[in-house]
Amino acid sequence: MHLSSVLALLLPLSGVVVSGKAVTNEKRQVYGVTSKYCSTASGNVPALCYLQYYVSPTQPTFRIAIPSDASPSQPFDTILQIHSPHANTWAGFSWGGGMTLNPLTVAWPNGNQGQVTVSSRWSSGRTTPGVYSQATLTKLSQSRNSTHWSVEVACKGCSKWTGSYGGALNVNSGTVQQFAWAISRTAVPQPANSAASFPVHNTQGMFSEPLEFAKNARATFNSYVQNKKP
Hints:
There is one protein chain. The protein has 230 residues and is mainly β. It has helices at residues 3-10, 218-227; strands spanning 16-24, 31-38, 49-54, 61-67, 78-85, 90-94, 104-109, 116-122, 130-131, 136-144, 148-156, 160-161, 167-168, 177-184, 203-209, 215-216. The chain is built from two helices and 16 strands. Strands 1, 2, 3, 4, 5, 10, 11 and 16 form an eight-stranded mixed beta sheet that branches. The longest helix has 10 residues, at 218-227. Residues 90-184 form the DOMON domain. It comes from Podospora australis. Keywords: Signal.
């Protein structure tokens, strides 16, 4: 069976995997696969396409979407989707490819049925990341069932960061952008608190890919954000 067909069967969120490419994490990590994933239109919510990163049935799936007219010289909104098995008590995503000196988006089930807490973080060293006020997360969807939890957020402030350690997503065609992720299997002590401290990660990894799969027409991207409801 073709790899994209396997992924389509494994991932319960609605949509189709359009194409796939294998990538490798750090040596101590498992293999992952990047692909283009497109959701299904529903009502006034248009279909959206994402750069998807999938590791295995026990790890989260991460999906990124951006507007096609995005420029690295100007900030732009981004969308991040996380779909994770319950065994992972929190999942974090790095927009700059590492734990430190770039925006981090962290999510975990918050203890209330069907709800997921999201938090924007920043770390200057190998310590628990603090709250990052320069990025704002807007929750677009959230869900929990008997096996998985999922959340989707729009972010203002995740594509470009300023100060002494400034940086930006490189959206130029064909240019590889590096991302990173981490998970834990130890529960967050205060799950309803978006500013809560959380346990150290058990597993982490990195992947690199151009953002072509993530690009959507600006009108489609804006309509999706405006009409999607949590």
